[in-house]
Amino acid sequence: MSDEDILTGLAEIINEITGRPTASVVASASFTDDLDIDSLSMVEVAVAAEERFGVKIPDEALAKLKTVQDAIDFIKSAGVPA
Amino acid sequence: MTGRPVDDETGTTRAPQQAPRTALVTGASGFLGQAIVAALAEPGMHVVCHYNSDRAGADKAVAVAEERGATASAVQADLREKDAAITLVKSCPTGPDIVVANAGITRDGISLMMSDEAFEEVIDANLTAAFRTARAALRVMLRRRSGRVIFIGSVAGLLGNPGQANYSAAKAGLGGLARALAREVASRGITVNVVAPGVLEGGLAGEGAAEGLKELEKSIPAGRRGTAAEVAHAVAFLAGAQASYITGSTLAVDGGLAMGC
User: Fold this and answer.
1) d(CA A60, nearest CA chain B) in Å
2) ipTM score here?
């Protein structure tokens, strides 16, 4: 799965949870500063991403995901098939 | 992003409830657990009846649920084990809509003689296990933006019961736990409350701490012990759609014993 595919998936998840337009979810965006996602919403995003991408995002890893790109990198490294 | 308001006229949530619904009751094999299962069970509901060692009790709970038109299953788990709650929640078809953390134990004794082990075991079984069960369930409820978590506390957690320092601490802890969780998830349409039974006919509290209990019984304003069904009715109320604006509260069902606490 490419970065682009993961980004599209994350954008759809964030749109569903926060109502923000998918176009605003760009790789460089910060979850808290740019997308205004609080810690509880971040857990929702993680749970949805786990379901969608078939990965496990432990709490320690989640705390380190600051930008959308961080999440893309983590999901790739956590073993989403290319 | 907010919980659904209840319709003033019909008393139902405006968006239709997803059917079938699932309720998870821990410690369903016990006398109070069985009563809670009975109070929650209705057509369209699946009740997961958790037990640890009392299979016969869990089977009885399943039978009680089925008599009332619900479907039900008995699931074994030792909730003192670290990941047991996660497995238990996963055993709920479609995830739990209602969780009643009722499983509990007592190991009574005067504090000055109480071992670390007796203290910790009661905290683990009554408080830590309840936290883990709620945490696992909340992940599902968060996505669904609705849910009911109900902890079974005790009047011992409100008043303190001599001979039950461990149990009183654990049950009081459930109150703080419920309030913290309630604040965290209230915006997602999930409520977290405590039902605190008083002295019940056939209850856990009847087995130990006998001295303290006799004293306590004398001061029950209602002048009698409560029944499991009376407690279960309060649980069913908090689990229902109409209790959507009640969260972080402790509802004592105790004949007035702990009023004002």
Assistant:
1) 16
2) 0.81
